Amino acid sequence: MQTNAICKSRFRRGFSLPTKQFRQRTTLVLWMLLLCLQMNAQSITQTVTLKGANLSIEQVFASVKKQTGYHIAGNKDVLKMAKPITVDVKNMGLRSFLELIFRDQPLTWEISNKNIFIAKKPITTTNVTPVSTPGVLLPGRVLDEKGAAIPGVTVNVKGTTAIAITNEAGYFNIPSKSEEVTLVFSAIGFESQELRFNPGVALNTVALKVKVQQLSAVVIGNYNTGYQVLSKERATGAFGKPDMEVVKKRTATMDIITRLEGLVPGIQIQGGQTSTNRNGNGVSTQKSVIRGIGSVNLTSDPLYVVNGVIVTDFASINPDDIEDITVLKDAAAAAIWGARAANGVIVVTTKSGNKNQRLSVSYSGFINYAGKPYYGPVRMMNSAEYIQSAKEIFDPISQSYASRIWGTIAPHDQILYDEYLGKITHDQATRSLDSLASINNEGQIRDLWMRGAYTTNHTASISGGNNAYSFYGSLGYTGVTSAIPGETNNSYKLNFSQNANIGQRLRISLNTSLINTVSSRKNAITIGNDFLPYQLFRDAEGNNLSMNYLTGYTDSIRNDYASRSKINLDYVPLDEFNYGHGTSNLMHINITANASLKIWKGLSFAGSYGYQKSPGTVKSYSDNKTIDIRKSIVGLTVAPTTADIPKYYYPTTGGAYTTANNEQRSWTVRNQLIYEAKPRQGKDNLAVQFGLEANEQYNYSSSTTVLGYNEKMGTYAVLDYAALQNGIPGTVTGYGYLFSSPLSIQSTTARFKSSFALASYTFDQKYSVDASWRRDQSNQFGNDVSTQNKPIWSVGAKWQLGREEFMKSIKWLNDLGLRATYGITGNSPYLGAATTVDKLQIISASTSGATQGSMIAGDAYTLNSPANGKLTWENTTNLNIGADFLLLKGRIGGSANWYSRTTTDMIGTIPVNPFTGLSSATGNIGKMTNRGIELSLRTVNIQTEKVQWSTAFIFSYNNNKLVSFTAMNPILNTASYRLGGNILAGYTMKPLFAYQYAGLDNMGDPQIYVNDKSTITKQRSVAKINDVIYMGTTQPKYTGSISSNVAYKGLSLMTNFVFSGGNVMRMPTNTFYTGVLASRPNFQNANYPVYFLDRWKKPGDEQITNIPAFVTNESLSYTRRDVDYFIRGDVNVVKADYLKLRDVTLSYTLPATAVQFLKLQSLSIYCQASNFLIWTANGKIDPDLRIGQGKHGYALGVNVNF
Fold this sequence. Notes:
single chain, mainly beta, Immunoglobulin-like, 22-stranded antiparallel beta barrel, 24 helices, 58 strands, 15% helix, globular, disordered N terminus, transmembrane beta strand, TonB-dep_OMP_SusC/RagA_CS, TonB-linked SusC/RagA family outer membrane protein, Beta-barrel_TonB_sf
């Protein structure tokens, strides 16, 4: 019994599941595996049809490649040995065909990884060409970079005629006079390599690199939609593929989306935002949009797919485990994903083992240093400038001391007030102010409250396989040390992928991914460069300094509250650091099973089954020593009357302890039948799919807060929360409330049931057509039949113009394909927008006005939204016209696209019958358009045996317009509404309006033009909607990148410039022109930019400055002017175009001799610098740099294959 108790305790501390849950989930996994074993299918038998007499082996294999996609690999001299071939076969299996044509040839063959390796038949049992001089046999093996054997490789002893050919397992034995020799390895499709033979090892092993010959070898040939893999030649849709070498080496972030910046046309990263809109709390994937903003109220994020299954967050994927990324952009590419794919789809495929691959172990790791936070290019006032400004604007009449005793009075103001009230002399005040003016606290802020941020990442992987089973597994660790002291973030990652062939017909795979992220923090304070420049946190003796004025109470009020409540209200920020802490523990579990089963003659069954779970717990504790809790105690304390002890309604011991639990669960089941054939003797390709799919996503969150919590004992105070929320009269502060709720629970469930079909046909390998159809039914739609049965579909066509006979005379044109697609995609409503019953919302008693003895007895209910059974997904029609081209023998290649997206039935507010009790409800209304172009261009500029230089250019342009939307309330159709950045029909989704600034008058007040610039005024609230002008959009209209990769032997220099533009921004502008300096009790907004010194001070200054005068009297300032005329004036709107070096990477791959000496397969090291060489159109502000982040990044990494 005791042993069981110990085991339970250990389970509770970790993430292990309770016994019942563990059995349930184990049963689920076993059920999925059993289902895969019984049902699924993927690969189709390759067949060959060929008729001809005296054909060369090159002609035969050109036809084989065209029909099957298999490539030939072998030494050119070996291929010359082949005899002419006469053959007449129809739909013969590939292996049978090869056995037939090689029956009387002096050659042998082997199939591996879509390659047919050709080698000379062995002359001896060692595959050796005899030499006349006896000597020794040198054994070895040849592999590729992934560890798979390469047959047919020619091995030569340098300087001799001795030759050997590797067998099907990659082994060779070659005779030599001596062991002190150099071996030369050569094979078609691989780089030639030399290796100094090492007699000290049992088996010399060499890894050959795939030869990068032409640009066509760089452009990825296949696209993965999550449902099928399409060849580039047959794909009609608009797809995007990033350069995976750049993706893998971008170390500034572990976020996959951020790593895609500038690598795929049409995708735009939304800096500093995460995609929680669709996917719920806890999602950390960077927000992005594909081909423009697609909705007003719904998400514009793309759909995330991993290994064919929808996921809510890419945070569950280790970037080092990614094999391939495909971005689906138009209807033909994305429509198959249904009512959630209007904004595009990002499909990630993770690594897996290869058949007949020897055991391979790899390691990759890096450290990235981002430095301390950067707080903008505008310098703030130093202490001397600050004190001088404070003296200039000090006005004890309009800002009397008595009027400020309930607020913050900073030290410099206290000195000025003391002098004014006669408490100190002028000389004393001057000395005190001069002392403050001589202090610079920047060093203490950066040393005490900041640190250099850095990230470390390590991934060790192992892979291997034989003919029936292959696997890939990895262990990873990521440690993030933020710029805030006391914060830690550690992620532990496990990934294991398995593939098994059961007989000739059944193939199953199982991928399991686990990521555990644990973070912790202290009660640190975020301090920028806008705090008081003279305030130190620690004195010369190392004592922490108090800042009682930041409590929001003057000394007299603070002392009074402390005396009556018996609670100390001194505030020492550095002491607070250890008075609180927080932790979070988040687990991502992702299990995906796939199976494929060959049924009969091109007919197969395929299935995908996924399960994801993300449980997480966030805990925070604030001790009663923190100033916030001490102030809460005072606010709920009744001072003693006769007794000496006050009555405390808030616990005075322990602290506030909050536990938040979040959990996401989702599952997917997809079954489909696939038929593939090659009609007309292999000249055409036919593929048809039909399937059913179901998935569910469940989100749960709860939050519990207890007061008076004792961390050691685990006890807490029992309180009357209802009474505290209703309020306690007669407290020290007058009347006290407890605004927090002890418990909050929320859960949502989204279900989809779908049927779908795909069909494609390619005629004569030149003309392709395809179509897709899908119907989604969901609890996120209304229950009306018309909403549940709306189809989503697409059609597309492609013409391989470059393969026409009349185009072959154009020698500089190697390939040209024209394509067009049209279709409909959808954007699903948010959960709860469509309900079959009226939706109620609970209002707490304190909010509803319920008090003891009132007519309202507790919580109240209000109608949140009436039922709308006809609500449906937003409908987007997509038209795409594109071209793919390859020029100058593959040295120039790329693609171009023009698209038009029109979204209708957008979710918005519609008027309803007043008898419902509401004037409006959620419905489908409005129209939006997105039109644009995309260009991707790649060039191979230099390509020699030692030097290679390639470049890439990516450009995207998007024009977004909200054509119509919910009818605007006339009350809201004002100039101030437009200035607030709200959406407005007829403009882009992120419009920016501004006043027409007319400078300052002779009192230093800002003025604007009105009435078509016929009038200049400073009067408040006179501007009409026509008096504010449209300056542009804050959303970039064009984005792109310019990349270069120069390689010399083992050295490689890769640079990536990114650019963005066509948008505008407001300059960071001081908004403080009235009142007093540092009037707020916090660590922000106490200091101001240095151009505050250039404000209007006397008549005539309006000729030399645009910055308004400072008016101490807030009432006077409000009645005589509006400083927003300057703050939101066109004078402060600038272009947001920029170009910057996002990253530059220098890498070095060790030569074969060095790798052999180290007993490794390969080794490369690299260093990287990011965010340099910035150019901005405004010449001042970097629109891309977010305040509080490091300005530059530096990284060092290594990749090793053992």
